[in-house]
Amino acid sequence: MNKTTVIETQNLTRIFQMGEETIRAVDNINMSINKEDFIAILGPSGSGKSTLLNIISGLDLPTSGSVVFEGKDLSQLSEKELDKFRLYKIGFVFQNFNLMPVLSALENVMLPMELAGRPKKYREKRAIQLLSYLNLKKRLKHKPSQLSAGEQQRVSIARALAMDPSVILADEPTGNLDSKTSIEIIQLMRDLNIKEKKTFIIATHDANITQFSSRVFHIIDGGLSETKINEN
Asked: What pTM was computed for the model?
């Protein structure tokens, strides 16, 4: 079966200079990510996981090498084009949820659609559909402080899906969750990957994710390697 490549990195390197110390946060990474992949990138804190996600999303620029996303070299895009690219093509899920505290769950999910200029009726309808799909129909008017950590992360996932992006990037999405809720969130993302055909790239130190992943990578000192996994 032919696979459609969504993202390809070529000799991707990101070097930081800290005083006299040179840190290769991302070290000559070559990887191809296919449509509908559910990828886990495992590594300890400081291994380069977040830096890699930032470069893939265009939030950070590589020192050398390139990221090609759906045929477009991100280095060729202007800042305005990169902002538009992220809004329409990528959904973000964060460890700390990054929800607006003064907004309700519904308003948080509507926010990216508002930035894109979607009509209010459309924004409300889609946000309600997404939150209902994630079992949050009774939490539409609740603000983040009134929600559990697991509920906040589900709102974050709904927001990530709001613009129907090609790829979801999740940076330590279970980092602030207990073990039971962590499994529930990973399973939820895997279900969305299968049912909604979304590509997921998840950076984490939570090894539980490997049992759900279609592909597993390990990153150590900026170097990336793929681990073969047994498929059922």
From this structure: 0.94
Residue 172 has pLDDT above 50, yes or no: yes
**Residue whose structure tokens are 């991100």:** 74
The answer to the question of residue 152 being in a domain is: yes
- Residue 44's identity, in one-letter code, is P
Task: Answer yes or no: are the C-beta atoms of 113 and 123 closer than 8 Å.
Answer: yes
3-state DSSP percent of the chain in helix, strand and coil, to 5: 40, 30, 35
The domain containing residue 220 runs over which residues? 37-61+77-227
Q: Is residue 53 part of a domain?
A: yes
The amino acid at residue 190 is: R
Number of folded domains that form the chain:
1
21: in domain: no
Say what the pLDDT of residue 18 is. 85
Two tokens, residue 128? 């309600």
Confidence label for 232 from pLDDT (cuts 50, 70 and 90): very low
Among 24, 29, 66, which residue's Cα sits nearest to residue 47? 24
